[in-house]
Amino acid sequence: MDTAAVEVTGLVKRYGDTTAVADLSFTAPRGAVTALLGPNGAGKTSTIEVCEGFRRADAGRVRVLGLDPVRDARALKPRVGVMLQSGGVPTGARAGEWLRLMAAFHADPVPPGLLLERLGLTSAARTPFRRLSGGQQQRLSLAAAVIGRPELVFLDEPTAGLDPQARIAAWELVGDLRSAGVGVVLTTHYMEEAERLADHVVIIDHGRVVADGPTGELTRGGRELRFRAVSDLDVSGLTAALPPGCSVAGHPGGQYVVTTADPEGVGPGLVATVTTWCAANDVLPEDLRVHRRTLEDVFLELTGRDLRDS
Ligand SMILES: Nc1ncnc2c1ncn2[C@@H]1O[C@H](COP(=O)(O)OP(=O)(O)OP(=O)(O)O)[C@@H](O)[C@H]1O
């Protein structure tokens, strides 16, 4: 069986003179959570909308559960759940009615009442969509995306604007989907969310993939070793003891940061060199720890710190 839930090869998407997606390729595995990350305007929504069959690619090949999202739209519809950034629910539809209607399109839907309860919408069941709060609208769209027990769900910024409780409920729902073997492809601007939920991360910038891999692998290789010690440590002496490419910075309060340029990050050898030097100089390195890179560190390293004008 084809193991990919989504396979995108050389995707190009243009809007007039704007190239939103430029030769983009990635694979999202089945039964796993894949997060598409990228600054505003990077091309995430365009990519996801082509995968959903809502937009046509200008070039490249897209396969969803092995099928073509435009040509095989009818076959894919019952197997794929979609949560649009814009909601996609008629403004006058009442939350409960809308979910019951969505349920009617599927052979074995999740009971609408159960989903309303899971997502904290029971008391809003009779409220028209336009009168729901932004967070309630988001949650209703999420519920509609999963009600048909899809094999794959596309979630475009599923937790944007949710309060912490609603975000946790959404995370739990995504976790349950994954446990049930459902593939999830989501976009988010919350790095902590991606780190927590995603098995696989694809970072996009200017319509191209700049990093792609298992979340743990992308964040591997912390470049810093930190410790506290006396405030008048001989920083130049320690620097001289370290391998080339390492530097030491002293900060107020006796905080020290050893940084390595080695792409593999801080290894056991560097930790041993620092502690050996400390022992030889009668220095106790307190709170010694290798600072793990977060997904946010990786994201900013790859996409820069400049604000995007888009
Ligand atoms: N319908 C459209 N017509 C013209 N340009 C568009 C259209 N949709 C998107 N774009 C442009 O394409 C580029 C990519 O947009 P897209 O929405 O795919 O990015 P994104 O990564 O999802 O951004 P965000 O994080 O802000 O949602 C942007 O420059 C955007 O202005």
Reconstruct the topology from this structure.
Layout: E1 4-15, E2 18-29, E3 33-37, H1 44-51, E4 59-64, H2 73-76, E5 80-83, H3 95-104, H4 112-118, H5 134-146, E6 152-156, H6 164-179, E7 183-187, H7 191-197, E8 200-205, E9 208-214, H8 215-218, E10 224-228, H9 235-241, E11 246-251, E12 255-260, H10 268-280, E13 286-291, H11 295-303
Descriptive notes:
With 310 residues, this protein is an alpha/beta fold. The protein folds into two domains: 4-216, P-loop containing nucleotide triphosphate hydrolases (Rossmann fold), CATH 3.40.50.300; 224-292, Alpha-Beta Plaits (2-Layer Sandwich), CATH 3.30.70. Helix content is 32%, strand content 27%. The chain has eleven helices and 13 strands. The protein has helices spanning 44-51, 73-76, 95-104, 112-118, 134-146, 164-179, 191-197, 215-218, 235-241, 268-280, 295-303; strands at residues 4-15, 18-29, 33-37, 59-64, 80-83, 152-156, 183-187, 200-205, 208-214, 224-228, 246-251, 255-260, 286-291. Helix 6 (164-179) links the parallel strand 6 and strand 7 (183-187). The longest helix is centred in the middle third of the chain and has 16 residues, at 164-179. Bound molecules: adenosine-5'-triphosphate. Adenosine-5'-triphosphate (ATP) binds at residues 15, 18, 20, 38, 40-46, 310.
Describe, in short, the structure shown.
This protein has helices at 44-51, 73-76, 95-104, 112-118, 134-146, 164-179, 191-197, 215-218, 235-241, 268-280, 295-303; strands at residues 4-15, 18-29, 33-37, 59-64, 80-83, 152-156, 183-187, 200-205, 208-214, 224-228, 246-251, 255-260, 286-291. The protein has 310 residues and is of the alpha/beta class.
